[in-house]
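Notes from hallway chat w/ T.B., transcribed later so I don't forget. T.B. wanted the structure written out for a chain they're using in a teaching module, and asked if we could keep both sequence and structure tokens in one place. Agreed to drop them here.
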Amino acid sequence: GSVVQISGCLLDGNTEAGLSVSGPETEVQVAGSFVRGTAADANGRHGEGLVAQGGAFGTLSWCSVSGNTTAGLGVYGRSSDVATTTVEVSQSSIMETGTTVMEISGEQYRIGDGALVHGGGELHLDSTLVSGNGRTGIYCNDAAGWLTRSLVWNNASYGLAMDGCSENVEYSRGRDWSDE
């Protein structure tokens, strides 16, 4: 594995992935950067701002992830012999993912999620804005994670959708403003 630090950078207008990290003991640390405008391939696949898979670990802090095609963040789990893929996001925004139609096994699916966490992946969001995405703010399928002090708002469909993972996702209520 390797460790890469990215700070104060612009990753813009790429195809398939703005940034991809894969494999156990592989880590990326992104701070104060923009990841935007990633396009899908010719078949309408990919188009994620950040892809983490195969047991990789990533952190994003003070970043803007916006205007990507299929997902701002794609966190794709593990096989039985690989560590969990984990992405931690803090003080950042994941916004304005567009929509695209992807064909999988002959079925067509409309996608466009702020964060897509799948197959045992894990996502931690703290103090992060997830807004204006073309489908779901955060979509977890057989995944885990936590969400705290964040605003998930104004997405075209669900703010948070969970399928097959409700026992694996934690959230905190934050401050109770009802007495103010």
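Follow-up for T.B.: DSSP finds no helices and 21 strands in the chain. Might be a good example for the class.
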